[in-house]
Design goal:
Distance between the termini: 23 Å
Strand content: 5-15%
CATH class of the largest domain: Alpha Beta
CATH architecture of the largest domain: 3-Layer(aba) Sandwich
Number of helices: 7
CATH topology of the largest domain: Rossmann fold
Structural class: alpha/beta
Radius of gyration: 18 Å
Order of helices and strands: HEHEHEHEHEHEH
Shape: globular
Largest sheet: 4 strands, parallel
Strand order of the largest sheet: 4-3-5-6
């Protein structure tokens, strides 16, 4: 309820949650609705499925913010967490683990590369990337890079974060710290809130 705005949620893989959110929001859903896609990359679900589900469930006038993975505050959040975990270590080796795409869709890889490049430019560490569904794999990068810190570029602590990656870390003695999913960090709420605040401020200035 920050900014005095009604807030709710829905999950794309569970279309019924859109109907439930629409019902809970009531009259608020008939006016201005700001949508924040809690995804790291602008893939098929965000581009195609999300607009369709919003329209099908009565969200007529929506204003969509960039995906969570593209919000300005995310880089600052990751940089801060890496700094906290690295302690006195200078430029730790960091392995960023992203989903990737088995179908070859470029958006997931490009999103991860943008995050890695932005963090490298800040000098917070030596950045490397690994993917769940495309090369280089997490297993290969753990052997090749021998990272100090592993950061999951995931929106939530799902199967990939808690099972796939965590299991491999059991055999990676170089890893001193692991963030399973950056989207589950308490600071993620502030990142989203700041993006909404900026959007509302811009729209108010225009009007």
């Amino acid at each position: 309820m920050r900014f005095g705005l009604a807030a709710d949620w829905a999950v794309i893989r569970q279309p019924e949650t859109f109907a439930a959110a629409r019902a809970r929001l009531g009259v608020a859903a008939t006016g201005r609705v700001i949508v924040v896609p809690f995804f790291v990359a602008e893939g098929y679900f965000v581009r195609v499925k999300l607009p369709r589900l919003l329209a099908e469930h009565g969200f007529a006038a929506t204003e969509r913010l960039p995906v969570f993975g593209a919000l300005a505050g995310l880089i600052e959040l990751i940089a801060e967490r890496i700094g906290e975990l690295a302690g006195p270590a200078l430029r730790p080796k960091v392995l960023l683990v992203a989903h990737g795409s088995a179908s070859g869709e470029p958006a997931p890889r490009e999103a991860a590369e943008r995050v890695a490049d932005s963090l490298a430019a800040r000098g917070v560490g030596r950045m490397h990337l690994a993917y769940i569904e495309e090369p280089p794999s997490v297993e290969a990068q753990l052997l090749n890079v021998r990272p100090d810190i592993v950061v999951g570029l995931f929106a939530s602590e799902g199967t990939h974060a808690l099972d796939d990656v965590a299991a491999l870390l059991d055999c990676a003695p170089s890893v001193k710290a692991h963030i399973a999913a950056i989207g589950a960090d308490p600071g993620a709420v502030d990142v989203v809130a700041a993006a909404i605040r900026a959007h509302v401020g811009r729209e108010s200035a225009v009007s």
